[in-house]
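ingest -> validate -> predict -> emit
validate: passed (alphabet ok, no gaps, 361 aa)
predict: started
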Amino acid sequence: MDLRVASKLHLLILVSFLFLKARGGSTRSVVFIDGASHKYIRNQQLDGAESNLMALDEVAATTSVLLGFAPPLSLADDSSAKLNKVLLPNPFDRPRAVFMLEVDGVDDTLLSSEKSFKSRVGGASKAEIRLPGEDEVSIVRLDESLDIECNAACLDQELKNLADWLGGSYVDGEMTLPLASGNVLKLHVLKEADLQFASSLVSFLRTIRKGVEIHEDLAGSIVNPAELLIGRFTGIKALEEEYGSGKMVSLGMEVFQTVLTKSFDLLQNSYGGKIVGVVIFNKEHTAHVGAMIDVVFPLRISRWLDEVSQANSTDSVTLVRRTLAWTTGIILLVSTILGVCLLMNMPLTRDTLLYSNVKLD
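emit:
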């Protein structure tokens, strides 16, 4: 009897643990940030963030729709219903520009805005954004490292520019950044973690400005592709691995929040409010390495095969035409030579002279 009670107790504890884990949800979350002057995302109820749960595939499908493309045909009905909970029901008014960023080591409390839609993210750890073709989408990678030609002097100048942009200072390898909370973050670039965090901020800001320049170039051209700015920020994770979950990480998160907010405001001004931010927060430590969402072009291979088949058919037609031309030419040449030879060796009789149109007296 005691054994039965003990086994039931263990089972009850296990079920309770799993239930609490499910209720607690995943440590991953996504925040959709609406445009400043244009509205593309639905309003969310106060308790909606805790009750919403989306898969990464659904986040990727939502991004495709925001870019102006149809979601994958394999999307289930319940997933389509989740997309309708996020997006406004206006298929003819999409921003066609998305700023997507994955942030490691941070939860969604970093962002709080009335024009945002939050949801927990569960399920698989990988997803794909399927786009129709490379010529229809302009992609800017936000996680590109600093250029190789950026030497120590270049890096110092970039760090100084970053500190000035944030209202701080950078002197002799020490960056001092005042925060809105009244705290001050000091980074020493001689420390690997501090340098990685600061250089990640520099690289992120440089690619944001690069995206703005590309958008301005596209705005003045005839083509009008959709625009996707996508990347991953790991600077907070570098601080966490070095200092643990302490004050240094909290200050770093506050700095990154400022950089993220100012960068998105820069994009909003450049795009005229016609851009939506999709920020995915991942605080869990998994064996998976790399970005959670990739961009793929499924039609690229079939299009290449079509081009190859068209090229092969063109070559075949050209070969047939050349063969016919050479064959006809050879036949005409042989016929001409035979005719001349027969005329030269023809006996001079009355019939042959008449055949040759010779006038006989």
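The chain has ten helices and twelve strands.
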